[in-house]
Design a protein that fits this description.
The complex is a heterodimer of chains A (301) and B (267).
Chain A: H1 5-31, H2 40-47, H3 49-67, H4 79-91, H5 94-126, H6 128-143, H7 150-157, H8 161-185, H9 190-197, H10 202-239, H11 249-258, H12 262-294
Helix pairs in contact in A: 4-12, 5-6, 5-8, 5-10, 6-8, 7-8, 8-10, 9-10, 10-11, 10-12, 11-12
Chain B: E1 19-28, E2 35-45, E3 50-54, H1 61-69, E4 76-81, E5 87-89, H2 101-111, H3 116-129, H4 145-161, E6 175-179, H5 187-204, E7 207-212, H6 215-221, E8 224-228, E9 235-240, H7 247-263
Parallel strand pairs in B: 3-7, 3-8, 5-6, 6-7
Antiparallel strand pairs in B: 1-2, 1-4, 8-9
Helix pairs in contact in B: 2-3, 2-4, 3-4, 6-7
The chains are: A mainly alpha (301), B alpha/beta (267).
The complex binds adenosine-5'-triphosphate (ATP) and magnesium ion (MG).
Chain lengths: 301, 267
């Protein structure tokens, strides 16, 4: 200890201040949540391997059932026959053109649905009168299978693309609009208050606070909207078939039934599944994960 | 960093008050269910002053703060502030979870239409002021509760002082309204943040109106403690902390009065 008392006090003052800084730093270090990043190979192992195993098992069971010949061949073809059909269709380019017809319709219909549903969702979420008027209708429409619209659409529009798009829209719009509404509803009320207190105008608050805050819910709605668009499209293509309409996956399925060609029917079902799952895995899942992870809400692989 | 945390006697402050509340009443609802939250409250805060608003739970502290913040309108009376818009800080940090710490601090500047480069620079300064240098890229969920509250403090300072800058007068140093900002934190973190707040207040000269129901916190932080009664909220008494020589005695005094106010409701 120094003999001079003034330096001693100065030194103590300095140390207490340093102590306070250290204490603060220590608290920061201790309280900061540590994020555990699972390594890529582990995520692949837990995310990719189980579904592959499940598919392989499914095919094995199918093969066994087929080999035991419980059902006649025309009811249960062998996996080989079905994958063979897919193989030849892919090889001669027919599969590609069929899938393209359906996907381009679904994507166009989906985008159209987004354009229509977004303003509806915004209106329902922000205008109480509109909400009480069409909110319940929107929820009701979501549980109405859109295939129910096919007969009406055929009578209204005839057998053409308009019918198909109408059915797709009726399937996708309610989901997307409802997703946006619930996304906006789930925004903590403190956020717009804070925005207003910081001087945000109405449009700034909508653009910079409400919409980004509602994004997770909206993305959920988009994902569901895509699933409904795809489903509705298949229903429409199966029922409304005509040479004037392009030949999509639904028509392919329908043709298989007409020709009693079970391998074709099953090939069509598998392709429909692959497209539906593929779009979800390639586009919606990554987008959702990114948005959730950026907010610290990400779950699982 | 050698700034001490000792209290200085307030310098004499002149000029118009930074915020002036006159005869403010607030009634929620109407008819039978009407709740008189505030009744004829007068409160004037000088530029650069640190005032604590103390009162039992439900006495109308938040209501008064919201009126001053312009988030709500008084039923009668007037609220005037020199700052165009007082900044507010709540019990929750209320950071935008999709923006990193830096961009959260930038947000009020962005809303004010200030350019990118200037905003960045100011956010960096303010984060350094709350001892979060180098943390601008962290997202709120990657920060501890205390750090989040410091980001919120930096953001409130950005809202209160804009681009800041040296040589600004007290009037331009802004007004900061805080509603139990440390209420959700653990004791040690709260203690550290109280010290940080005092340091930041001394460094910026910002006017602070701080709501709390913790007597010890109010005595530690404020230059002046204002006690509100409950239902209806009225100003009961005020204490200047700088004239009291003994903090313990002042604490005892205020606690006694607060108990008196609360038990008056039991009679
Ligand atoms: N929007 C509202 N509608 C009706 N009554 C309200 C509303 N906001 C507040 N009150 C009432 O006004 C009174 C004061 O509320 P306020 O939130 O201002 O109290 P407080 O002092 O901040 O309490 P706390 O310490 O719990 O935060 C309470 O009795 C409350 O029930
Ligand atoms: Mg309150």
């Amino acid at each position: 200890m120094a003999a001079d008392s003034t330096t001693t006090t100065a030194a103590t003052a300095a140390t207490t201040d340093d102590d306070a800084v250290d204490l603060g730093r220590g608290l920061d270090a201790l309280d900061t949540p540590t994020e555990q990043r699972t390594p890529l190979w582990k995520r692949l192992l837990t995310g990719v391997v189980p579904p592959i195993v499940a598919v392989v098992l499914f095919v094995v069971v199918w093969q066994i059932l087929w080999a035991s010949a419980i059902w006649p061949e025309f009811k249960l073809p062998s996996p080989e026959a079905v994958f063979g059909t897919i193989g030849t269709d892919v090889a001669d380019g027919r599969a590609l053109s069929i899938i393209w017809t359906s996907i381009s319709r679904a994507v166009l219909g989906f985008l159209l649905a987004v354009v229509i549903a977004t303003p509806i969702g915004l209106l329902v979420a922000s205008v109480p009168l509109v909400r009480s008027a069409i909110g319940p209708v929107l929820t009701g429409l979501q549980s109405l299978p859109s295939v129910a619209w096919v007969p009406a659409a055929v009578l209204w529009f005839g057998l053409n693309d308009q019918t198909i798009y109408f059915v797709v829209l009726m399937g996708a719009v309610p989901s997307i609009a409802n997703g946006l509404v619930s996304g906006i509803e789930q925004v903590p009320p403190l956020l717009p208050r804070v925005g207003f207190a910081m001087g945000a105008s109405r449009s700034q608050s909508a653009r910079l606070i409400m919409l980004p805050a509602a994004l997770p819910g909206f993305l959920g709605g988009l994902k569901q909207g895509w699933a409904f668009a795809w489903r509705s499209l298949m229903a429409a293509e199966i029922i409304a078939t005509s040479p004037s309409l392009g030949f999509g996956l639904g028509a392919y399925l329908n043709e298989g039934q007409a020709l009693s060609d079970m391998p074709s029917v099953m090939a069509a079902i598998i392709l429909i599944l692959i497209v539906g799952i593929g779009v979800e895995l390639l586009f919606f899942r990554p987008a959702e994960l990114r948005v959730l992870r950026a907010r610290g809400l990400g779950t699982g692989p | 960093m050698t700034a001490t945390l000792e209290r200085h006697a307030p310098e004499p402050r002149t000029g118009p008050p930074a915020l002036d509340v006159r005869g403010v009443s607030k009634v929620f609802g109407s008819g039978e269910d009407a709740v008189v939250a505030l009744d004829g409250v007068d409160l004037s805060v000088a530029p650069g002053e640190f005032v604590c608003l103390l009162g039992a739970s439900g006495c109308g502290k938040s209501t008064l703060l919201n009126l001053v913040a312009g988030l709500d309108r008084p039923t009668s009376g007037t609220v005037e502030t020199t700052a165009a818009r007082p900044a507010v800080m709540f019990q929750e940090a209320a950071l935008l979870p999709w923006l990193d710490a830096g961009r959260n601090v930038e947000l009020p500047l962005r809303l004010a239409g200030i350019g990118r480069a200037q905003r960045r620079e100011r956010a960096r300064e303010l984060l350094a002021l709350v001892r979060l240098e180098g943390q601008a890229a962290k997202r709120p969920h990657e920060l501890s509760g205390g750090m989040r509250q410091r980001v919120a403090l930096a953001r409130a300072l950005a809202a209160a002082t804009g681009l800041g800058g040296e040589g600004k007068s007290r009037e331009e140093a802004g007004v900061l309204l805080m509603d139990e900002p440390f209420g959700a934190l653990d004791a040690i973190t709260r203690d550290v943040l109280q010290a940080e707040l005092l340091r930041v207040w001394e460094a910026t000269g910002t006017t602070v109106l701080f709501v709390t129901h913790d007597v010890r916190e109010s005595v530690r932080l404020a230059e002046r403690v204002v006690l509100l009664s409950s239902r209806p909220g009225r100003v009961v008494r005020e204490w200047a902390t700088s004239t009291a020589d003994d903090a313990e005695e002042l604490h005892g005094d205020i606690t006694g009065e607060l108990r008196e106010v609360i038990s008056a409701h039991g009679r």
